[in-house]
Write a structure and sequence with these properties.
The N terminus is likely disordered. The chain has one domain: Glycoside hydrolase/deacetylase (TIM Barrel, Alpha-Beta Barrel). The strands form two sheets. Strands 3, 4, 5, 6, 7, 8, 9 and 10 form an eight-stranded parallel β-sheet that branches. A two-stranded antiparallel ribbon has the order 1-2. It is of the alpha/beta class. The chain contains ten helices and ten strands.
Length: about 350
């Protein structure tokens, strides 16, 4: 992969991990940048990049490729495209085999440039559309006339359950965000989900379900019920009752590929992400599950990020040897879980 320049910051080459035996040292290793044992002086510019986390020339062990007897987990990093610091961190993790799905927001200013980091991703990494109705501004002129700025989740949820959403405008927005993904990636998404789970809300889910049935190849949809893991607390009930249960029923009725369980839900205030992950890994059912995560580096100056500290904690853990050790101890490996 060629060196890219995102938001004016020179970044190092991200090397695709090499599949190997589970736990073997070469598996998932990121070799040094060409032309130097540890990379040239130009590569030292990564210190100025808006992304935190390990040096991408440090050898990683991949979490992908393991005996078929292990339980499968799809580990999806959300919010790629929201900010370059977030996107760079996610791309590094994916190329190191630490996540195997990336969900992309196409409404942000960073999307067009950051999408270059998704070129030539390993075939084991699925790329999806993170449909956004709650952050920033709409892409479509039709929805922008109704909502110059996208509403907060509470307002959107209330309007959805009262039947007050501008259906035609939301449909236009879905087509605009879907089109932005296809334009940048040159193919439809492997899956579709929603920023803050908006895809499961009444009206919104009907729009997406109807659209998916006419897309070839058919994308999978993220199911938001049942939510597993003791960390979910009250958020489990909110997610499932706001629309998760209704979406799960429709996915089964329409025979649309989806995950059968969701993990990774917590309040972002917990600081021991490893303990959270160990609990989620223990809860992975025999038929697999999808786990959402939100790793990221330092965002651009002036970009508020209410979960910025949690993003850094998640990035540091997912980059660590402890993550690979915890997967092995739980008998879990990363793989596809759509049913």
């Amino acid at each position: 992969m060629k060196r890219q320049d995102l938001a004016g910051v020179a970044l190092p080459v991200l090397h695709t991990p090499v599949a190997g035996a589970w736990g073997s040292a070469p598996a998932g290793a990121l070799p040094p940048t060409a032309g130097s044992e540890r990379g040239s002086d130009r590569d030292s510019a990564v210190a100025t990049a808006p992304a935190a986390g390990p040096d991408p020339t440090t050898p990683y062990r991949s979490a992908v490729a393991a005996p078929a007897s292990r339980r499968l987990l799809m580990l999806c990093a959300d919010d790629f495209g929201l900010d370059s610091g977030i996107s760079i961190a996610i791309a590094r993790l994916a190329r190191a085999g630490r996540v195997n799905a990336i969900s992309c927001i196409t409404t942000g200013a960073a999307w067009a440039a950051d999408a270059e980091w998704l070129q030539d991703m390993p075939a084991s990494v699925s790329l999806g559309l993170h449909f956004n109705l709650t952050h920033g501004r709409p892409l479509s002129r039709r929805l922008a006339r109704a909502w110059p700025r996208l509403p907060r989740l509470a307002r959107l949820t209330t309007q959805a359950h009262l039947g007050l959403l501008p259906r035609a405008a939301v449909l236009a927005e879905f087509h605009a965000q879907f089109g932005a993904f296809v334009k940048a990636i040159d193919r439809p998404p492997h899956f579709i989900d929603g920023h803050q789970h908006v895809h499961h809300l009444p009206v919104v889910r009907d729009i997406i379900l109807d659209a998916v049935e006419h897309i070839q190849p058919m994308p999978a949809l993220r199911s938001t019920a049942p939510v597993l893991g003791s960390s979910a607390g009250v958020k489990r009930r909110l997610i499932e009752r706001a629309g998760g249960q209704g979406l799960a029923q429709e996915l089964r009725r329409r025979v649309i590929p989806h995950n059968t369980a969701l993990l990774g839900v917590y309040d972002f205030a917990r600081t021991d992400y490893r303990a959270l992950m160990q609990g989620w890994l223990a809860a992975v059912p025999p038929d697999g599950a999808l786990l959402v995560c939100h790793p990221g580096g330092v965002t651009s100056v002036g970009t508020p990020d209410p979960i910025g500290a949690a993003r850094l904690r998640e990035l540091n853990y997912l980059s660590s040897d402890e993550f690979v050790q915890d997967l092995a101890a739980a008998g879990v490996t990363l793989g596809q879980v759509w049913r």
